[in-house]
Amino acid sequence: MEDKTTNYVYDSVFVTNEVDASRKYLANVFIWMFVALGISAVCAYIFANDIDLLNLIINTTTGGFTTLGMVVVFSPLAFSLVINFGFSRISYPVMVLLFLAYAVVIGMSLSVILLIYTASSIFSVFITASLLFGVMAVAGYYTTQDLTKFGSILYMFFIGIIIASIVNFFFASETVSYIIAYIGVAVFVGLTAYYIQMLKRIGAGIEYGDAASKKLVIIGAFTLYTTFINLFLSLLRIFGRRN
């Protein structure tokens, strides 16, 4: 009886510590995610309301992107590759700098969105995206079902969306854009639940205090931030009202 009681107490403490560690990790992830969203929002507002800055990324004569604008549009993919595949080589301060620079670049590209769509529709879509993201985050955190296979399939769809979006950027097909947007909403809603479950497990298994654990927080924030932005943009393409 004494052995069973001891094991029960030990297991309970172990589970509690895992839960606490996971919650602490996710809390830090969301803090960094919100910081990135704030930076992007500020940058988008500044560029959209300063004609000189806007001219750096948009050619007012042709209505197309400048050279810098093209870099801004395609650089997020480069940031993603560097942050994800350079985990072991990049120091924590550099990773933070890259993540914040990524948020700035996204904000610069979002400034164009502020010119295309009405402020009211952007706000309403942002609220909708936030609610969807929040609901799926809670579902992903509390579900007991393993979402690994489900997430792997969605991630393949995500790669397909990236490729299709790049191709459609040059062909500018409105129909294809809508198809990508509808698929994107389904994919990013599902990925939200999958990523939260994945990050919950990561948080339960890491030890805090070293550089690796801090970088895992940035990786987690980068993942959720990117998922939310893509969900927001997909919804905006469907429901946004143009100026």
Q: What does the model show?
A:
The chain has helices spanning 2-48, 51-57, 67-85, 92-116, 119-142, 148-171, 174-205, 211-239. The protein has 8 helices and no strands. It has 243 residues and is mostly helical. Helix 5 runs parallel beside helix 7 (174-205), helix 5 packs across helix 8 (211-239) and helix 6 (148-171) runs antiparallel to helix 7 (174-205).
Topology:
Elements: H1 2-48, H2 51-57, H3 67-85, H4 92-116, H5 119-142, H6 148-171, H7 174-205, H8 211-239
Helix pairs in contact: 1-4, 1-7, 1-8, 3-4, 4-8, 5-7, 5-8, 6-7, 7-8
Give the integer mean of the pLDDT values. Answer: 86
State the helicity in percent bands.
Answer: over 70%
Structural class: mainly alpha
Number of DSSP helical runs:
8
> What is the approximate shape?
globular
- Major pleated sheet: none
Distance between the termini: 73 Å
Low-confidence segments, given as residue ranges, are: 1-16
